[in-house]
Amino acid sequence: MSRLTLPVVLLRIFLVALFAFLLLMQLLSLPGQFVSGDGGGEYAHLGWVLLVAAELGALCLQVVIVCTWKLLTAVKADRIFSESSLGWVNGIVWSFVAGWVLLAGTAAYLVVVIYFSPERDPGIPVLLFGMVLVGAVFVLLVVVLRALLRQATELRADMDIVI
After folding, report:
1. At what angle do helices 44-76 and 5-24 cross, to 10 degrees?
2. Do residues 86 and 149 lie in contact, with contact meaning Cβ atoms separated by under 8 Å?
3. Which chain regions cross the lipid bilayer (predicted)?
4. What letter would DSSP give residue 37?
5. SS3 letters across 72-102
């Protein structure tokens, strides 16, 4: 366990910094970024859609941070291969799934709005499609890692019975 002490401490420091950063973004930056005081003209509704999507996306990341913190506590106590750890991993998986659904929905809405606009710039839809693909790969990677943790937990339980 001593090999993991430094990385766990560093990861906890960065998790606290990221959580504080996300909280500041949610409270101070995002509302000003997406909803301006001048009304925004014809596309004013996009600001509100983007604000809600960004706030909920940040909330999903905060849930992931809390679940990761609890998993780090289990690592430190040498309880990572237990059923209780799988609950925190499930929290991470479902947060990523919710974030991906949010991203895909927002991207689809933006593509529709861009398609019906006079400019029809294809750059943003292509970028959004790439982001949705990367998000899908990441979500599926986390699901595979969860399955590996479940297998390791079952093997550990079997070994404990034998010993």
Report:
1. 160
2. yes
3. 9-28, 48-72, 92-116, 128-149
4. T
5. HHHHHCCCCCCHHHHHHHHHHHHHHHHHHHH
CA distances from 127 to 7, 93, 123, 133, 148 (A): 34, 24, 6, 10, 32
Distances (CA, A) of 87 to 15, 81, 92, 143, 154: 19, 11, 9, 13, 15
pLDDT in tens, 29-42: 998 888 876 666 77
Query: Count of residues for the chain?
Result: 163
Model pTM score: 0.84
From residue 45, how far is each of 36, 114, 122 by CA, in Å? 11, 13, 21
What whole-number distance in Å separates Cα of residue 23 and Cα of residue 10? 20
Helices (H) and strands (E) in the chain, counts: 5, 0
Q: Which amino acid is at 9?
A: V
How far is residue 30's CA from residue 26's CA, in Å, rounded to a whole number? 6
In the block, tokens 């949705």 appear at 132
**Residue with tokens 């859609």, as numbered in its chain:** 49
